[in-house]
Amino acid sequence: MYYTTQDGRQVLDGTAGLWCVNAGHGRERIVEAIQQQAATLDYAPSFNMGHPISFAFTQKLAGILPFDLKKIFLTNSGSESADTALKIALAYQRARGHATKTRLIGRERGYHGTGFGGISVGGIVRNRMNFGSLLTGVDHLPHTHGVAGNAFAKDEPEFGADLADNLERIVALHDASTIAAVIVEPVAGSTGVLIPPKGYLKRLRALCDKHDILLIFDEVITGFGRLGAGFAAEYFDVRPDILTMAKGITNAAVPMGAVACSNRIYDTLLAASDTPIELFHGYTYSGHPLACAAGLATLEVYAEEHLFQRAADISGYWRDAVHSLADAKHVIDIRNLGLIGGIELEPRPGAATSRALEVFDRCFDKGVMIRVTADIIALSPPLIIETAEIDRIVETIREALTETA
Ligand code: PMP
Questions:
Q1: What is the pLDDT of residue 351?
Q2: pLDDT beyond 80 at 405
Q3: How far is the CA of 111 from the centre of ligand 1 (A)?
Q4: Same domain, yes or no, for 115 and 216?
Q5: Final residue belonging to a domain, choices 272, 304, 336
Q6: CATH number for the domain that contains residue 383
Q7: Pair 217, 68 in one domain
Q8: Which sequence ranges are marked TM in the entry (predicted)?
């Protein structure tokens, strides 16, 4: 649960690194698996061939993936997973004879990494504005932040499911025959912990079904127990057609990402190919043996310690603790789900640094690491967190807020 600074201080990790060290740091089992693998097989190509640990790993991963999402493509990051998912969606539409279905729909305030596909469907102006015209044929649904009546909502907010209906507006403008896929983070993390309104994701699924559009869930943050279920798709009981992963897949010990899709998509791609290759796409390090070893050991740790269930069990305590900051100074909204928390502060226009950044510095000095984006504090501790550590994070933030001008 801790980092040690260069001067020897212990800092409690309130963010699981970058939403990724779900089982906590320095897990011996994972370290040993990587060491052993490095001594056994350091590298082998995964183009047109394979090696045993990539199959062992993907088989185990398929075992915990929800619904029929059992065909897996391995990448090295969340960004690669997002671009891979978009390419699978486009290739699938073409393979099934719907070559005009090429438009991609993202969402405002969405984050899907830093590849060209990801920034194009993503909704963060600073990640987009310096990089030319990006992908063409992309539209964005509105974000779900700030809907009236939702401030300080616990778990899923009440209002705003109808924001999904904006897909109808995009369909009316372009026609469903031109739209390949919608991609969303089930819970938007990087832009400030935006919890979907009750029923929103189900409505999006229904509209995608109605218009024959693929639904992609970017589960780079929400995967591997963050919400107290293996994946957000399970938590919300909504089946995406394609699901992206990274971060917690190896407990962040070795870089890795993955994309899962249904048999239907896989079989369609394969049937349309005039070669035994289902998709002309791949990375040198796809299925890297060290990443697979780390991933296998990570999934074993998650299972043996029942960490997804543990996150669910402690999420009520987490919710109450985070919401106890409602009357702290400068707080204008609090959001939570599973082991995620977002605390939004009143902006401080004209100040050299945001209030949240000042809170970050003060918390770090007091031995607690949080994360901030603009005026929002984001929390996502390792799933092994104890109640006393939750109290410490919350009380440290309270103190820091009190001290902040
Ligand atoms: N998608 C989501 C939802 C993410 O949160 C992130 C990283 N924060 C990414 C994609 C990109 O992952 P990476 O930084 O590993 O490329």
A1: 86
A2: no
A3: 7
A4: yes
A5: 304
A6: 3.90.1150.10
A7: yes
A8: none
Reported confidence tier of residue 150, pLDDT bands at 50, 70, 90: very high
| Residues of the chain by 3-state class (helix, strand, coil), percent to 5 | 40, 15, 40
Best of 21, 22, 79 for a ligand 1 pocket test (most atoms within 8 Å of beta carbon) = 79
Residue 336 amino acid letter: N
Question: How many other C-beta atoms are found inside a 10 Å radius of the C-beta of residue 259?
Answer: 27
Residue 168's CATH number: 3.40.640.10
Domain that holds residue 48: 28-304
Q: Same structural domain for residues 285 and 313?
A: no
Q: Is 321 helix (H, G, I), strand (E, B) or coil?
A: helix
Closest C-alpha to ligand 1, atom 13: 78
Angle at 326 between CA 321 and CA 330, to 5 degrees: 125
- Confidence grade of residue 276 (pLDDT, cut at 50, 70, 90): confident
**Rounded percentage of the chain residues whose pLDDT exceeds 90:** 95
Per-residue model confidence as pLDDT tens digits over 232-255: 999 999 999 999 999 999 999 999
Distance CA 218, CA 221 (A): 8
Question: Domain check: are 283 and 316 in the same one?
Answer: no
pLDDT > 70: percent of the chain: 100
Q: What is the CA radius of gyration of the chain?
A: 21
- Count of domains observed in the chain: 2
pLDDT band at 343 (very low <50, low <70, confident <90, very high): very high
Distance CA(241)–CA(293), nearest Å, equals 27
- For residue 254, the CA-to-ligand 1 centroid distance in Å is 15
Q: Which of 112, 143, 243 to mutate to test the pocket of ligand 1 (most atoms within 8 A of CB)?
A: 112
- If asked whether residues 227 and 363 sit together in one domain, one would say no
Closest Cα to atom 8, ligand 1: which residue?
190
